[in-house]
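Explain the record.
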Amino acid sequence: MGKINSKYSFSDKEQNGKVDILLNNNGFLSNIELLDESKNWQWQGALGNIRNNCNFMQPAFCKSNDTVYWSDNISIPDTFEIPSGATVIVKPNTRIYATEDAEFIVYGKLIAHGSEYHPIKFTGNIMGAGRSYWGGITAKTNGTVDLEYCYIENAEVGLFLYSTASTTIRYNTFKNNRIGLCAYANSPVIRDNYFTDNAKAVAAHAGSTPYLASPFSTTIHYNNGIINNDSAISIYNSTPYIVAGYNDIYNDTLGIYMAFIDETPDRRIRVGNNYYGSTVSSEVLTHFVPSDKFEVAPLLDSAQTNFKSKSADGAADLLTLAFEQLYQQEYTTAVQLFYQLIDTYPDEIEAFWALTGSYQCHRLGNLSWLSYIDGMESLAQDTTLNQQLKKYARDYMLLAMRHNLNYNDAIAGYEAILNSQPSWYDSIYAIINISNTLLESGGFKSLMMVDGMDQKLLESEISHIRRTKELLFSRPVEKEAVKKTGNCVEIVNIYPNPASQSFSIEFTTCIDGFAQIDIYSASGNCVFSKQVNVDQGMNIFYFQNKTTLGQNSIKPGVYIVRITNDDHSDSQRVVIR
């Protein structure tokens, strides 16, 4: 290596047979590669063939049906797609910066393997942005995302897994996202990750079963740290597997550990053998919504500590046996065991996981989709089964039709849901699934298209993704007393937050008159209500948590403050210690 002066040196840093100029600028190391063929650049008063590959930002790039490598600093200024057949491999210590409107969509393969001391970072380049988040990484159907030792930050949804092939997410950190990881009709394995400072750490949608524990062995510890998020695990029409995962799930800010957002199962879901920050079940259950739908015992008494699990019952034993056959690739035998479990224990929570397992067997083992469709249709029409299990069977039947290219039948099934006076969530899922089926079919149009469907939803993949994200952050319209339209009411700030005895609410209104101030618990109960006079512009309301016999009238927990003024409203979360 020939030294030019104290700031420059020559070497072959990348060991690719090309000369690199290394620049040390006050301890900040840059690299300029001399190429054999490139345009002439004017540099330092002399002509030379040069390309910067370290200090400055490179735009994201890929090649169709080829593999490219990303390193150093990469910029995603807008929606970026990895097409089917293309592979992007991200080298350790790479930084990917996305603008506030950027969406990173994977149809092909994204392989990002950092290391413990050289992680890869996906983050928002939000300096001067109007919003605080970028879109995040979305893996579409058949897209592959393989992440290890990655940081995913400042995203609306850090990692969005859409009906993709099963994947394992390990050794990653999800921080300061609206949602850290969302599984949609997907069952990823989530091990050894860290989720912190997210509004929602993990969300499970549309029949998903994210695995935060091993369904076939209680000796395998998954050891995820889901700590200090507003909500740890949000469940939308899904059944996450958490029992005996030896995960740390707790908050310093009295947040929600797990919550069923729409429908709740008939039986309690077992989530024991994890550490929830306390050894008192009654205290732990205050962080679960609704608390009577969870079984938290046995509790671990310290973080990441082994604890002898309780004896498994018959349903759990059969589920373990079925998953063992699945992982040994004995798919036909596994399917038989899953069906046996459903037939023997139809009212147990394991029956829902058996539906997921049987679907995985057909997908991974290339088994007959026609036989699976017949099996699910039989379950969906079985009058002896509970309605929730029948609905899960119907959803998997329609998904199997799409795998079998029966787009007409699948769309007819989703339209039948819309015509049967469904719940708000079921109607939204049906519309999204119709859109996804149309896209999968290459533009097939149904003869029975429902009047009033949002046609914009069908225009492109990106609109489909954004519509589903809206669902993640929305509320059922039938549960809202007042719809929020426009910005006539806006909560500007609640401070202090977390609060103790009192807090102030700064809010603006666009008209004079009266405003209704309501405070709701996490379970939806109104615990405070008052009507106040307001002026157009900025207003301040001071809330004092009154005490009776030495006890606060509102107990510690997570609450929603809602302000309503002339059919407009806004809501914001507050934590009371």
Observations:
- Residues 63-295 form one domain.
- The mean pLDDT is 78.
- The first strand starts at residue 8 and ends at 11.
